[in-house]
Amino acid sequence: MISILVLHGPNLNLLGSREPSIYGAVTLSEIDARLAGLGEKQGVQVDSLQSNHEGALVDAIQSAVERHHGILINAAAYTHTSVAIRDAIAATKLPAVEVHLSNIHRREEFRHHSYLAPIVIGQICGFGANSYYLGFHALVTYLKEKQAERAVAL
Ligand code: CA2
User: Fold this and answer.
1) 27: Cβ below 6 Å to ligand 1?
2) 7 CB under 6 A from ligand 1?
3) Structure pTM?
4) Secondary structure of the chain: what % helix, strand, coil (to 5)?
5) Ligand 1: nearest atom to the Cα of 100
6) 76 lines ligand 1 (CB under 6 A)
7) What is the pLDDT of residue 14?
8) Mind telling me the catalytic residues?
9) Which of 3, 14, 91, 109 is least surrounded, with the fewest CB atoms within 10 Å of its CB?
10) Domains and CATH numbers, the chain
11) CA 123 from chain center: how many Å?
């Protein structure tokens, strides 16, 4: 069974309670529940984790190698600062999709650069919570295609 790890970075636990004009009214629990539901429909195991701590995210990424086939990540502010998270994802060699609720390219200059963008399959941003669901679809499609390619090669 395909298994994916969903990672949410700092302050995303506040979703739904503050700044709804930027990030929408949906809560993180609602996003996680919808992702779990999408996973059930598609036969994909979905495990989610939110942390405000860079090291905890790095630990989760390192552990993902043993349990998961891909990573869906909104690294939040660490997107723009964390070489450690980038290095951890690159080291796992797991396919990853980067998502953002807001369109980071339409916001302040410092949000335009992502340390993750060069090492992920792709980035989806600007669609609110739908960025996560689109990202989930993109990652699962990628993993299923790779699985099918491997089956043909056998
Ligand atoms: O648009 C996104 O998903 C971001 O990753 C969100 C980050 C931000 O630093 C990135 O540039 C873009 C911020 C997450 C903070 O979330 C909050 C939610 C509610 C209230 C306050 C913060």
Assistant:
1) no
2) no
3) 0.97
4) 55, 20, 25
5) 3
6) yes
7) 96
8) 23, 100
9) 109
10) 2-153 (3.40.50.9100)
11) 9
